[in-house]
Specification:
The complex is a heterodimer of chains A (111) and B (115). Chain A has 111 residues and is mainly beta. Chain A is built from no helices and eleven strands. In chain A, 0% of the residues lie in helices and 50% in strands. In chain A, strands 2, 4, 5, 6, 9, 10 and 11 form a seven-stranded mixed sheet that branches. Chain A has a four-stranded antiparallel sheet with strand order 1-3-8-7, with no helix packed on it. Chain B starts with a strand and ends with a strand. In chain B, strand 9 and strand 10 form a beta hairpin. Classes of the chains: A mainly beta (111), B mainly beta (115).
């Protein structure tokens, strides 16, 4: 029973398209995150979100937007995809402090 | 601005020997440190952690050492096993300046344990 699940696992799409990646956690955690792992393997936070507050990393383009229909879901919408958006995107969730659990990642390829 | 640095991209160790993975950080506001292990095509999984008020934490074959004055931590794996072959990420928890209390990762070190 997967704790943090994200879909799809692989996504290939053309430049300019709009796409979404879904994330769900069944851990009852209060906070969810999106991380991006770029070609240099650097894991960098994009967003952190609980039901009270969305924190956006200022380096993230506004083409990226998180949407949370409820506490267990945090989906990532990307508009007008660019080649540089190609990366692996990881969803994660945590309780306050250190209990981070990650999804298995979504490999996005923009062609 | 890399606040968490793992300067060795890769490390090869013979099975049964000790693996030592190093990590340096620059932000003195970090107060909790974690190591994650990642296999290909999977998300990072939590391995071991240490609070900034301690200098050592041990869990089976895994020990993490923290030297606050040097802003340095290391993960020791003894004895190393082929199944330990993975990418190991050092991460630090605290206010990294991006507006939230969050986890900041190093770039990872790929450990290969040779049978």
């Amino acid at each position: 029973d997967t704790a943090v699940s994200q879909t799809p696992k692989y996504l290939v799409t053309q430049m300019g398209n709009d796409k979404s990646i879904k994330c769900e956690q069944n851990l009852g955690h209060d906070t969810m995150y999106w991380y991006k792992q770029d070609s240099k393997k650097f894991l960098k936070i994009m967003f952190s979100y609980n039901n009270k507050e969305l924190i956006i990393n200022e380096t993230v383009p506004n083409r990226f937007s998180p949407k949370s229909p409820d506490k267990a879901h945090l989906n990532l919408h990307i508009n007008s995809l660019e080649l540089g958006d190609s990366a692996v995107y990881f969803c994660a969730s945590s309780q306050p402090y250190y209990g981070y659990t990650f999804g298995s990642g979504t490999r996005l390829t923009v062609v | 601005d890399q606040q968490v640095k793992q300067n060795s991209p890769s490390l090869s160790v013979q099975e049964g020997r000790i693996s030592i993975l190093n990590c340096d950080y620059t932000n003195s506001m970090f107060d909790y440190f974690l190591w994650y292990k990642k296999y290909p095509a999977e998300g990072p999984t939590f391995l071991i952690s240490i609070s900034s008020i301690k200098d050592k934490n041990e869990d089976g074959r895994f020990t993490v050492f923290l030297n606050k004055s040097a802003k340095h931590l290391s993960l020791h794996i003894v004895p190393s096993q082929p199944g330990d072959s993975a990418v190991y990420f050092c991460a630090a928890l605290g206010n990294s300046g991006a507006g939230s209390y969050q986890l900041t990762f190093g770039k990872g070190t790929k450990l290969s344990v040779i049978p």
